[in-house]
Amino acid sequence: MVVIYTGSNEIDKILENEIKGSMVVSYADFIIEDDKFRDQTVILASSAIETGLREYLFLLRSKNIRVILLLKNEKSEETKIALENGIYDLVFGNFYPSQIKDILDTPKKFEDISKIYKKQFNIQIKKVRGDKLNEKK
Questions:
Q1: Half-sphere exposure of residue 4: CA atoms within 13 angstroms, side-chain side
Q2: Is residue 90 a contact partner of residue 120, using CB atoms and an 8 Å limit?
Q3: Among residues 40, 31, 18, 39, which one has the least CA distance to residue 98?
Q4: CA distances (Å), origin 109, targets 56, 81, 88
Q5: 76: which DSSP letter?
Q6: CA 55, CA 78: separation in Å to the nearest integer?
Q7: Number of other residues whose CB lies within 10 A of the CB of residue 122
Q8: Where are the alpha helices (DSSP H) in the chain?
Q9: What's the rounded Cα separation, in Å, for the pair 67 and 36?
Q10: How is the beta sheet containing 2-5 ordered, strand by strand?
Q11: For every one of its 137 residues, what pLDDT tens digit does the chain have, with 9 covering 90 and above?
Q12: Residue 46 near residue 69 (C-beta atoms within 8 A)
């Protein structure tokens, strides 16, 4: 089952019509209150969560709920919070339902978001030349 909560009735209905086996919920807490959503997938707009996004995403992930998170832009604090919670299925800005369907079929891997992760957490990686990483000089 795919649960949809974007905070926009129009977007919710479009996604529900496009994604088989999906359902729209009318308030965010319903997803974490009802155990029937454990081990399911949620399409969620970060802007729809009014307070405590970090805690809310943690509660979802602690129920093994896969989150496809809709974000305004890559450079937001919400992106960092999502990455902290192991959420890699991130969609930035405007999107087409087909993009969501693609992510449903092929979840993003760490490799797909590694550049975003590096920027968000200011990770500096020194380049290593060739295969000389383990050679003694």
A1: 21
A2: no
A3: 18
A4: 22, 17, 7
A5: S
A6: 12
A7: 6
A8: 9-18, 29-33, 53-62, 77-84, 97-105, 110-120
A9: 15
A10: 22-24, 2-5, 41-45, 66-71, 89-92
A11: 999 999 999 999 999 999 999 999 999 999 999 999 999 999 999 999 988 999 999 999 999 999 999 999 999 999 999 999 999 999 999 999 999 999 999 999 999 999 999 999 999 988 876 655 544 44
A12: yes
- Return the structure tokens found at 60: 């979802």
C-alpha distances out from residue 21 to 42, 68, 70, 91, 130, Å: 12, 16, 20, 21, 48
d(CA 82, CA 88): 7
- For 16-33, give the DSSP string: HHHSTTEEE-SSTHHHHH
pLDDT at 91: 97
Q: In which residue are the tokens 């832009």 written?
A: 73
Q: Are 101 and 107 in contact (CB under 8 A)?
A: no
- Four-point Cα dihedral 97, 2, 73, 8, nearest 10: 80
